[in-house]
Amino acid sequence: MSNPFFINSGPFKISEILETLKIESEFDENRIVIDIKDLYNAKKDCITFFHLKKYNEIVKKTEASYCITTKNLKDYLPKNCTAIIVENVLIATSIVTQKFYPNSIEDEYDRTAININDTSFKDIVNAGKNVLVGNNVKIGKNCLIGHNSIIERNVQIGNNCKIGSNTILRNSVIKDNVTILDNCVIGKKGFGFFPSQSKNLRYPHKGIVIINENSEIGCGSTIDRGSLSNTEIGKNTFLDNQIHIAHNVKIGENTILAGQVGIAGSTIIGNNVKIGGQAGISGHLRIGNNVEIGGGSGVIKDIPDNAKVMGYPAKSIREFLKDNR
Amino acid sequence: MSNPFFINSGPFKISEILETLKIESEFDENRIVIDIKDLYNAKKDCITFFHLKKYNEIVKKTEASYCITTKNLKDYLPKNCTAIIVENVLIATSIVTQKFYPNSIEDEYDRTAININDTSFKDIVNAGKNVLVGNNVKIGKNCLIGHNSIIERNVQIGNNCKIGSNTILRNSVIKDNVTILDNCVIGKKGFGFFPSQSKNLRYPHKGIVIINENSEIGCGSTIDRGSLSNTEIGKNTFLDNQIHIAHNVKIGENTILAGQVGIAGSTIIGNNVKIGGQAGISGHLRIGNNVEIGGGSGVIKDIPDNAKVMGYPAKSIREFLKDNR
Amino acid sequence: MSNPFFINSGPFKISEILETLKIESEFDENRIVIDIKDLYNAKKDCITFFHLKKYNEIVKKTEASYCITTKNLKDYLPKNCTAIIVENVLIATSIVTQKFYPNSIEDEYDRTAININDTSFKDIVNAGKNVLVGNNVKIGKNCLIGHNSIIERNVQIGNNCKIGSNTILRNSVIKDNVTILDNCVIGKKGFGFFPSQSKNLRYPHKGIVIINENSEIGCGSTIDRGSLSNTEIGKNTFLDNQIHIAHNVKIGENTILAGQVGIAGSTIIGNNVKIGGQAGISGHLRIGNNVEIGGGSGVIKDIPDNAKVMGYPAKSIREFLKDNR
Questions:
Q1: Residue C166: C-alpha distances to residues A58, C141, C231, C268 (Å)
Q2: Chain A residues within 8 A of C238 when measuring between CB atoms
Q3: Is the peptide bond before B4 cis (omega within 30 degrees of 0)?
Q4: What is the number of other CB atoms lying within 10 angstroms of the CB of residue C1?
Q5: Which helix (H) or strand (E) holds A322?
Q6: What is the reported pLDDT for A1?
């Protein structure tokens, strides 16, 4: 899916990008770079980044033409991909992303939003009182939007969707038959920045939130949009109340998350997974298909398909119950 | 308390109910069934359900005339109660509940809600800006309702209540002297459905939320209404911020829940209980009177009266502290 | 910082205060008491309170002229400070605070709030739709306030601040360059009261919330104001979504709290601290500088500078990982 919301200011010559990074060029200065993407999604003529050795299997297959990385990691790159060596990969990636997507850093309230009754949606959407809609919004047939909700700019809503009251959407694609209950915030920038003593440096969030068909999001939940990749909720996946989904998380289909669950950034969760209330999952993990995670668990490592785990740190539920007899 | 909000479409002949369940009738087809209720509340001529062996003491005393159950469990039923044998008790119960209460499945935003200044409450309620009120609402004397709050249809508020701003109430009975702070959602449908690969099947929530006298609910809390029984908060019970109370939970009097606590469905909590911050309690448990549960605990089994517990899984606090010296 | 919001009804003669407490006076009845403050902040002619032996080092240095305490603790007081002996220190403190600050107990919605377009802020603040502003509010240059947000009375906002949508502020001082995202409630009364069988007794919250320069508060967070002292977030400290900060908490500079963290009352957290998602910290603790607390941890004792901890209860991260290999 190409990015429907954040407009690419590129392409740029690689020499321009290197100049932004204050790196002296050693290679063909006129080659064009069309976009910045993560390792999975980068194509020829894109620039990507590689900062953790654990992604070494993925980097081998990247189609990117350039990769921001470190001296120590550069030898993992495939031949098609030229290394751009920096001290701090994430800061350099942030600077380049900002060059391509200057509007993806801050979430100022949407000044384009106006009352839905003053828009062409008036006749096709069944909306409550005081509903606001911003620019670049599409809404399908047979949708409900509750009182005081704000559909900020850059939102696509499919058919037969039900949005509750006091809910805020931005930078999101909502597919058909999705229900989002009251008091949610979907699509805000993720919690990503580089700590700095005087003033932390926020990095851009040009990813979006995608919520697929038939899913339901409970009251008071927050789903942050991705930084370079998207945050995505699979089909027919149900989230209970007060859940927090961080940036870049991907959750599969037919998955169930009970109340107050939290998923940290960039974690990938499979299909048919059940996660009990208040469980937390650390960032950058992979949770397989058909996994069951007990309520209150703290998951700090990958979980293979079909495993049932519980505890903090989470272990096999059999072991957990045995240890706590 | 008879259900003040969800209108019973019955009575039905038992033969009609069996037909809905696609069960061939073996008994008097013309007998009338007046309502569907849980084991505790079902009276003569009601239908109830029994799906977990742990409720075997309760089922013995049920006054219901019919009970949806399984082959394995049917022998626990008392003589007055005819078993209706099904494969999956909860799905069958859902189907029958939907027959009696067809409007209890989805929480669409309340289209009957209008500005309080356009209602007769204008002169008796001290309301902020942009307050909405739906049909079938009662509000007592000397109440305050903060800005942007929505009192949806099917709400009764007693005297001297204080409702904060940005709060949503529906399908709830709020007794005298209750305080509900900002950004809460009280009375939405619970997180109850039957997982199914293509499209989960939501079951009806015809229960309500009851908040008894002198209680207080903190900011950003969610209290879901019950499925067949009610969700109830006892007198003079105080909840801190960001608490989640699931469907069918019952909390006693003079109980205190600190911030971010979560209580899973159908759990019953006694009087004079103290629950520390971020503690979680699994579903279908019984927590006695005068219990103290330490902050961060994960309770996964019943707790007797007067116990002090802590840990995950929660155990006696003495043992917890000894084990973690 | 003197209290900018809650107006002191004093001074009172000490005899008047003793009468309120129903204590027979044994000392100079005409001496004047100008204010009630905590042990740190009380000056000459103030009254303070001392209820936990763990504060014995602090009580030695208090400048207060009077101190509400118990028979057992009175010998810790310095010579300049006269003990007022009571059965229950917190109840007596509550009664005296209420005498000085009668308006600090309940958070009724702000009836002075009106649409920002009907105020003089219209031309200097970039505000969304339906923004309300109460009495005694100051807003600096170049600020944004999102749709439906409510700046209740007693708020000071510095320059270049960004307030999201659906957010409520009261009794708070927001310094320059602060970002507060959507659906937050900042400055409500804390969860402080004396349990009582028929009707809990709320104690006053005359403290405020201070959020210092360059900080950011995530969506759906709640920060309660202090009871006698203030709740304070240091400079350049970033909070993720759905965080709860209880009354009297003080967080240092350059500190990072990930999603769903909860900090119980009166805990003090240092500078450059990192707290992982869903971690909880008990009340009345001291967390040093440069501490790292792993996600999901439950901290129940003080943590010295530079420590890295994880687990429930939290211990050294090395030990935690070893124990859970």
A1: 41, 21, 22, 29
A2: 191, 193, 200
A3: no
A4: 9
A5: helix A317-323
A6: 52
Sheet holding A82-85, edge to edge: A35-36, A46-49, A66-69, A82-85
| Distance (Å) from the alpha carbon of B74 to chain C's nearest alpha carbon | 43
Give the position of tokens 């809650």: C6
Q: Say whether A148 and C148 touch across the interface (CB within 8 A).
A: yes
Closest CA to C232 of C265, C209, C255: C209
Output the CA–CA distances (angstroms, integers) from residue A137 to A5, A40, A175, A221, in the order listed: 10, 28, 13, 22
The model carries a pTM of 0.93
Task: CATH number for B12-100: choose from 1.10.1840.10, 3.40.1390.10, 3.40.50.150, 3.30.720.210.
Answer: 3.40.1390.10
Q: What are phi and psi of B292, to 5 degrees?
A: -120, 125
Alpha-carbon distance B312 to nearest alpha carbon in chain C (angstroms): 8
Is the pLDDT confidence value at C40 over 90? Answer: no
The answer to whether C181 contacts A185, with C-beta atoms less than 8 Å apart, is yes
E runs forming strands in B70-117:
82-85, 114-115
Q: Which mean pLDDT values do the consecutive 10-residue runs of chain B (325 residues) have?
A: 80 93 80 92 94 92 96 95 94 92 88 97 96 97 98 97 98 98 97 84 91 98 94 98 98 98 98 98 97 98 98 96 88
Best residue in B143, B161, B219 to probe C by mutation, most C CBs within 10 Å? B219
Whether C259 and A260 lie within 8 Å, measured CB to CB: no
- Chain B positions touching C200 (Cβ under 8 A) are 214, 216, 236, 238, 254
CB pairs under 8 A between B and C: 123
CATH 3.40.1390.10 boundaries in chain C: 12-100
Query: CATH 2.160.10.10 in chain A, residues?
Result: 114-323
DSSP string, A172-228: EEE-TT-EE-TT-EEEE--S-EE--SSS-EEPP----EEE-TT-EE-TT-EEEPPSS
Listed as own residue / partner, the contacts of A78-87 with beta carbons closer than 8 Å and 24 or more positions apart are: A80/A44, A81/A48, A82/A27, A84/A17, A84/A18, A84/A21, A84/A23, A84/A47, A85/A23, A86/A21, A86/A23
* 3-class DSSP assignment, residue A36: strand
Q: What is the DSSP letter of A81?
A: S
Picking from A137, C57, A127, C192, the residue whose alpha carbon sits closest to that of residue B241 is C192
**What's the token pair of residue B37?**
């209720």
CA separation, residue B317 to residues B270, B295, B311 (Å): 19, 11, 8
**CB-CB under 8 Å, C146 with A132:** no
Q: Which residues of B touch C (CB under 8 A)?
A: 126, 128-130, 144-148, 162, 164-166, 177, 179, 181-183, 214, 216, 218-220, 236, 238, 240-242, 254, 256, 258-260, 276-278, 295-296, 311-312, 324
Q: For residues C262-273, b (16+ Cβ closer than 10 Å) or e, as one string?
A: bbbbbbbbbbbb
* Contact between B146 and C193 using a beta-carbon 8 Å cutoff: no
Catalytic residues of A, which ones? 247
Query: So what's the ipTM on this one?
Result: 0.92
Q: How would you list the strands of the sheet with C150-151, edge to edge?
A: C114-115, C132-133, C150-151, C168-169, C185-188, C222-224, C244-245, C262-263, C280-281, C298-299
Q: What is the pLDDT of residues A251-310, one digit of tens each?
A: 999 999 999 999 999 999 999 999 999 999 999 999 999 999 999 999 999 999 999 999
Question: What superfamily in CATH does domain B114-323 come from?
Answer: Hexapeptide repeat proteins (2.160.10.10)
Could you tell me which residues come within 8 angstroms of residue A172 by beta carbon, excluding any fewer than 6 positions away? Answer: A154, A155, A156, A186, A187, A208, A209, A210, A211, A225
Both structure tokens of B109: 């935003």
Which chain B residues contact residue C115 at CB under 8 A? Answer: 129
* Cβ pair A115:C128 closer than 8 A: no
